[in-house]
Amino acid sequence: MAGNDWINSYLEAILDAGPSIGADKSSLLLRERGRFNPTRYFVEEVITGYDETDLHKTWVRATAMRSTQERNTRLENMCWRIWNLARKKKQIEGEEAQRTSKLRLERERARHDATDDMCEDLSEGEKGDTIGDLSTHGDRRKGRIRKTSSIDALDSWASPYKDRKLYIVLISIHGLIRGENMELGRDSDTGGQVKYVVELARALGSMPGVYRVDLLTRQISAPDIDWSYGEPAEMLTPRSSENFMNEMGESSGAYIIRIPFGPRDKYVPKELLWPHIQEFVDGALSHVMHVSKVLGEQIGGGQPVWPVAIHGHYADAGNSASLLSGALNVPMVLTGHSLGRDKLEQLLKQGRQTREEINATYKIIRRIEAEELALDASEIVVTSTRQEIEEQWNLYDGFDLILERKLRARIKHGVSCHGRYMPRMVIIPPGMEFNDISAHDDNIDSDEEGNDDNLTSPNPPIWSEIMRFFTNPHKPMILALSRPDPKKNITTLVKAFGECRPLRELANLTLVMGNRDDIDNMSSTNSSVLVSILKLIDKYDLYGQVAYPKHHKQSDVPDIYRLAAKTKGVFINPAFIEPFGLTLIEASANGLPIVATQNGGPVDIHKVLDNGILVDPHDQNAIADALYMLVSDKHLWTQCQQNGLKNIHQFSWPEHCKTYLSKIASCKPRHPQWIHNEDSFEDSETDSPNDSLRDIHDISLNLKLSLDGEKGENAVAKLSNGVRAAQKVGSSERFYDNSSKLPILRRKHLVVIAVDSVDDANLIAIIKSIFMASSGDIGFILSTQLAISEIHSLLLTGGIAATDFDAFICNSGSDLYYPSNPEDLLYPSELPFALDIDYHSQIEYRWGGEGLRKTLLRWAATVTDKNGESEEPVVIEAMEHSSTYCYSFQVKNPSLVPPVKDLQRQMRIQALRCRVLYSHDGSRLHVIPVLASRSQALRYLFVRWGIELSKMVVFVGESGNTDYDTLLGGVHKTVILKGVFNSAPSQLHLARSYPLKDVLFDSPNILQMDGCCPNYIKSALQQLSILQS
Questions:
Q1: Where are the beta strands (DSSP E) in 176-252?
Q2: Which intervals hold domain Sucrose synthase first GT-B (predicted)?
Q3: What pLDDT score does 582 carry?
């Protein structure tokens, strides 16, 4: 078969890109014995699946055949296989094009609807700037950040802040995090983000006005990692804090706090941590509560010192921070680092995997939803570059560049945004420590060409480890430092170096690709890239010209940069897309000119430093030309070095922290609204432990609700004033009267009944069974989608007194009530419940109010059931079941309404922040605040009343409402009631944003039992150590 040579280049390109992740099957042709069967090959290998690395092996085998006929037959089948790959890629591209087009139309339509709602004329104001707070570089025409390298400048900035004592919480939960000797490059989870968050915590802890910084991460005690990752706490020693040491207090400084969650004795990748997010949040909440109390005793005059902000790094920590900040009612900050939608888009463009295959490997849909949730809750999103905002965050439903400009302009002019909110995007480039740069500058400037003595004098050990690879170690060194990841594009760099003879003759190449012991023990992706590089070194015979050391410590990295600078070398980052490029700043600080990708953050870095050349990472010749230009033109090299050293202090950590703290200070302060007097709790230990929340006579809770709802708003206003007055008198008056004692604080355990999958009769039976099975100092909470009036009717039907419960979580977690004593009722029509209005202060953040309601009504009007010529509405507002923070709708036909993820997207793309929930049978739709949920209400009880979450037991059915998964995770116990009394869920629950298996896992805290009789329930409580056997 003539003309088969074209396949060779195609296969080489496939090989260079690396094999499919998880591919481990071998070629049928390599296993074939006897006569070759093309039909069998086509059916088994082309139709059922493919492996691109195996494809190359087949090509090599085929071209080696001596028989011309058999060789041509095999090559013909190779063409069939390549055709199948191309067809699959085209199919994926077509599907994604249709999906993208649909989403674009939805976004444009939603933007048009939002603009119609915001009908005030702001023709000039709404134009706005390009992006709010897009740059911290000051005058954008100059492209420069104001220098703050001197201590005097820092002292001048710090003077107004010295009296402030801020507590800041950072979260980064994946990877291996410690303060010294970081194992960067050990795996894909332990990279630049780890170094960034540790140095950020350290730098913030040294800033004036910051009293304490906690970096929360995962505690890991596994046999294959160092023991230091199992230590509960680690103090970060300041790099240079001489000027602020006098402000240090007993608990001040920066700390790494390791929270135990997930598998206790196993280090797992970030993709497997999603089911354990709730457990981390509960552990982090306990820690922050404890520290806030301790700081309150030290510097807060006895009142808790709440975090000024909770900052989540990456999607998993962003999801965690949204829950933690919601439970504490404090502002949230988000840094994405690497974004899921951008990664998904890049993987789909390769055409090698479908969306389903990508999600199976990376849990990418769960990650994207976590990023959307984080956007919903964030006050500020910290980015490194303008490109990250315009090309990456703009892919998300929760952020729209055009709508952001309009909202920012309206806020500036004091015009209503009709319940719409957009997080504020700010650019703050990562910082660096430059304490050792000044001395190094002199060394570089004093080096003379041909002065080889410096290379033979006592040097850091890593120098000899690198130079042993080189035949001539005195040639300029081209340095690349990254993980062996396909997206880092190292193979193209090696090709560029190998195919440019002038460059090879003039320079050496050093590839620092993380740490490894054995290539076979590396991940399939990393090992594939490394093997490809070794093959290229052999192909171009680069022995003696390329170094690829196996090991290095984090402390060796500055020495590696210095070695390259001493040889008049160049640093290169050829990644396809680089979100920021911290290594470029590090290299520049050590006197190295740079060659970097033109895609992403390096563009902004180059504007500031002006110390190198930007290249197209796909253009092999452009990479070689740029490298050759810098190492061959000594004048250009010197000019780039001087520019970098002159401007590098614009990326210092003090500059970063100053900008960061100024942005944090611009957030509206939020913290829990109530005041506790812990002494009153401690003085009441003799009170009976059997008293219930029904005995509360806290003036802030005694809002009596009448059946006709009269004067509700006035009552709330009066009670709010009453709370403030009572707080001035003293908190002891809030809990006592002539008959009441302390409530839920004395409960040793709480049983939460949250069974959604049963009818009212079975729910009443389950409640009575749980009452009968329980004894001692156990309290009870009913958690449901029902409104308080429906709960009252349910209790009357079952003959259950409201005072048998301690609290009622209603309307899917948007309302929290406590029972009232019947003798306190003023009117016969009043319901015996007290509303916790302080809980509303927790969840009202970004609630769309009437603007959201109008949008929902407009959407509901479009959902109709066409019956002949008539159209009947499917979604009808249920005002009798709605409340201030819950819009309730009746769904007549669940098969005609969109799933939660679609309706949630429609609200997000209109900048409406809310949580959308369907009932178990799909007959009811609830829209509640983004910070409200039934699981968050339990955390509120912990924050307000000090009830340990580990002492709660949540009873659920086999399935539930669309918030079912949030009730299963965490440190509380869960009992799943199985049996015929459970009804089947609506088909609406099948179309989830992400698979349920991504958030559920086998846990000793989750117990399944058949039936709901008292004996079975008692046995379950005994197994969970709630009752004694």
A1: 210-218, 233-236
A2: 167-394
A3: 82
Q: How many CB atoms lie within 10 A of CB 333?
A: 29
pLDDT band with cut points at 50, 70 and 90 for residue 151: very low
Q: Provide the CB-side half-sphere exposure for 595 (13 A, CA).
A: 27
Q: What is the pTM of this model?
A: 0.77
The yes-or-no verdict on residue 509 having pLDDT over 80 is yes
Ramachandran region, residue 1002 (left: φ > 0; alpha: ψ -120 to 50; beta: rest): beta
What residues contact residue 209 under an 8 Å CB cut-off, 6+ apart?
158, 161, 162, 163, 164, 165, 166, 661
The HSE-up count of residue 796 (CA atoms within 13 Å, CB side) is 8
Q: Residue 875 pLDDT more than 70?
A: yes
Query: What's the DSSP call for residue 447?
Result: -
Given this model, what pLDDT does residue 706 score? 38
Going from the C-alpha of 782 to that of each of 744, 750, 764, the distances in angstroms are 14, 11, 11
Alpha carbons 275 and 280: distance in angstroms, whole number: 10
Instruction: Please give the pLDDT value at position 692.
Output: 42
End-to-end CA distance of the chain: 80
pLDDT score at 870: 81
Instruction: Find where tokens 């390096």 sit.
Output: 602
Instruction: Give me the pLDDT at residue 973, please.
Output: 94
| Distances, alpha carbon 323 to alpha carbons 272, 273, 329, 918, in Å | 19, 16, 10, 21
- Burial of 775 (C-beta count, 10 Å sphere; 0-12/13-18/19+): exposed
How many angstroms separate the CA atoms of 466 and 489, rounded? 21
Give the distance, in angstroms, between the CA of residue 761 and the centroid of all CA atoms in the same chain: 42
In this prediction, residue 672 has a pLDDT band, given cuts at 50, 70 and 90, of confident
